[in-house]
Amino acid sequence: MKKADILIFGDICPDNDYKELFGKSGTQVFDESIRQMIQESVFVVGNLECPATKETVAITKCGPTLKAEPEDVAFLKKTGFDALSLANNHILDYGQKAVNETTDCCDANDLLHFGAGKNKTEAAKPMVVDIAGKKVGFLSFAEAEFNLAGENTPGANHFDVYTSLEDIATLKQQCAYVVVLYHGGIEHYKNPSPLLQKKCRAMAKAGADLVLCQHSHCIGTVEKWGDATILYGQGNTAFGYREGNAAWNEGFAVAIHLDTNSISLYLMQATPGGIVLASEEANKNRINRLKSDSEQIGDAEFIKEQWDAYCAAQEALDLALVYGKNRVYNKLNRILHNALMNTFYKGKKQMITMNLIRCEAHHEVVTTILENNVFKDK
Predict the structure, then answer these.
(1) Which domain holds residue 329?
(2) Are 18 and 49 members of one domain?
(3) CB burial of residue 274 (10 Å; 0-12, 13-18, 19+)
(4) Under DSSP, is residue 361 helix (H, G, I), strand (E, B) or coil?
(5) Rounded Cα distance, 125 and 129, in Å
(6) Which residues in the chain belong to E strands, given as ranges?
(7) 182/233 Cα distance (integer angstroms)
């Protein structure tokens, strides 16, 4: 195992079934081999996919709400982490005070952090560190959910094509190596969508040497784009264990070697008792499968075919959600393979909805109306 100048872990959430393994009563969520790999690396980064807070009341949102305790941040520091990315879809799950508490907790434990802050400007600041005699820049972006920083409110750094690519280019002018962590894409889907691939390739063109997509909770596919490497799905690091779900229970630690501008991948696997480093044979086999899965992702037609198939499978659920139907309707529509939607919301009605969502001007109007209605009391 070659020593890493930079070691990057994926999604970490000290919640649910792994809550007691984060240093409680002397426990360890990472096995000895992973802890040794961390200790031997020059600089270690992870994505903390939740706030670290004492707040007990979650915000109102769709989807799960997650949190860590401040002690969990101290545990990660003691384990050997040097920095945490905070740009993700859960950082605001316990409100604005929890975001500030998280960044303050990182500061108190001498952990660098990036990707979230007290306002939009602070959240967008890159992290620049000297590693092995080179300046290395890190930027972290999240897609828009219930998580983003505002002009005067805390939250995550939003990926905005009109400003973020320029931020990457500016950072590249200052640094020998640039890492972008992108928290977005489709959960449990291994291929990039056409839009995600376009975004990540644009990040590489702007100056990123490595683009790591997190959030999908599965290992995805990988491609070289110019001189950059793009990994469309790093997989989980420590997000609990799910019986019989091999994709959920695996993830790569990504090691960067600055002398050769290359990376190595190390497979980790979740067990009921924590995260273990896979054997050399299992690691080799998983990397070979990654390469095999990635053979066609340079083919735009293949990407479109896979994406169309995924969207077709989602149609019965997502169309009903778009039209605001209740849980009973949604379940019945799925059982009937979208028959309800095809009967009552077809033709012109779907055309109107498509135009409201797809057209940039209409999309902005509808989004503003919904945001103002949803957040009017906040």
Answers:
(1) 301-374
(2) yes
(3) middle
(4) helix
(5) 13
(6) 6-12, 43-48, 83-85, 112-114, 116-117, 127-131, 134-142, 155-156, 177-183, 210-214, 219-225, 228-234, 236-238, 250-257, 262-271, 274-277
(7) 10
Structural domains in the chain (count): 2
pLDDT one-digit tens code per residue, 35-59: 999 999 999 999 999 999 999 999 9
Q: Phi and psi dihedrals of 359, rounded to 5? A: -70, 125
* 80 neighbors 88 (Cβ within 8 angstroms): no
Closest by alpha carbon to 353, among 310, 331, 324? 324
Confidence of residue 246 (pLDDT cuts 50, 70, 90): very high
Buried b / exposed e across 285-299, counting CB within 10 Å, b at 16+? ebbeebeebbeebee
pLDDT of residue 262: 96
CA-based nearest residue to 49, from 23, 80, 87 = 87
Quote the pTM value.
0.94
Dump pLDDT digits (tens) for 283-315. 999 999 999 999 999 999 999 999 999 999 999
| Closest to 8 measured CA to CA, from 49, 32, 30, 38 | 38
Q: Are residues 61 and 157 in the same domain?
A: yes
Task: Residue 70: give its domain's CATH number.
Answer: 3.60.21.10
Residues 343 and 205 in one domain: no
Flag whether 241 is in a domain: yes
Q: Do both 341 and 271 map to the same domain? A: no
**pLDDT of 74 higher than 80:** yes
Same domain, 292 and 305: no
Same domain, 212 and 268: yes
Helix (H) or strand (E) holding 38: helix 32-40
Same domain, 26 and 98: yes
Kindly state whether residues 118 and 166 are assigned to the same domain: yes
Pairing of strands 6-12, 43-48: parallel
Helix axes 360-374, 348-358, angle to 10 degrees: 80
For the chain, the first-to-last Cα distance in angstroms comes to 50
